[in-house]
Amino acid sequence: MSLRASVRNVRVVMCALTVLALSGCSRTPPPPTPTVVTLVGEANLNAGGNAAVVRIYQLAGDANFQRASAQAFWQSDEQELGDELLGSPREVQLFPNVTESADLVLGDETQFVGFAADLRLPDPDHWRAIYPVDAVRGKTVAVRVGENRLFVTIP
Fold first, then answer.
1. Does 151 have pLDDT greater than 80?
2. What pLDDT is recorded for position 25?
3. Residue among 67, 69, 78, 37 at smallest CA distance from 54
4. Residue 41: how many other CB atoms lie within 10 Å
5. Which of 13, 21, 63, 100 lies 20 to 30 A from 145 at CA?
6. How far is CA 77 from the centre of its chain?
7. CB of 46 within 8 A of CB of 114?
8. Are 118 and 92 in contact (CB under 8 A)?
9. For position 155, what pLDDT does the model report?
């Protein structure tokens, strides 16, 4: 075997070893842990035992969510939220004395998670709630909806 052939073989082996070494280092990261939202409809839900729609929003900001009135929000939530809305909201129809569950995979751009309940006679300060994404990411969030308000508990 000539010196030139030996050098070529060494280069081929070195390239193969480099490719093998690099492929062993590039592991796929584990999928993100979902945020679990448990929604509970209280017996007096929505002014005395009526179903209510609850939506969960992934948001880039919180200003539009906090500024909107309940009436304007429920007439056109997408318009009220504008460019702060990331994707489509997760919607759950909640009934009295029923518990529902929703798994959320929060996007990389998500900065806030908002919860809103469409109630007949909403308490002006408690029909919605918003939290920084780090407060809810990977946790189990409890959302209780009562007669005229929504309560959120994060462990």
1. yes
2. 55
3. 37
4. 26
5. 63
6. 17
7. no
8. no
9. 87
Q: Which two tokens stand for residue 151?
A: 């309560």
pLDDT of residue 7: 47
Residue type, 112: F
CA angle 42, 149, 113 (to 5 degrees): 105
CB atoms within 10 A of CB 92: 20
Who contacts 34 (Cβ-Cβ below 8 Å, separation ≥6)? 103, 104, 105, 138
> DSSP class of residue 82?
G
43: exposed, middle or buried (C-beta count within 10 Å: 0-12, 13-18, 19+)? Answer: exposed
Residue 25's H or E segment, with its range, is: helix 3-25
What pTM value is reported for the model?
0.81
Mode of pairing for the β-strands spanning 90-94 and 52-59: antiparallel
pLDDT digit string, tens, across residues 8-60: 554 555 555 555 455 555 577 777 789 999 999 999 999 988 999 999 999 99
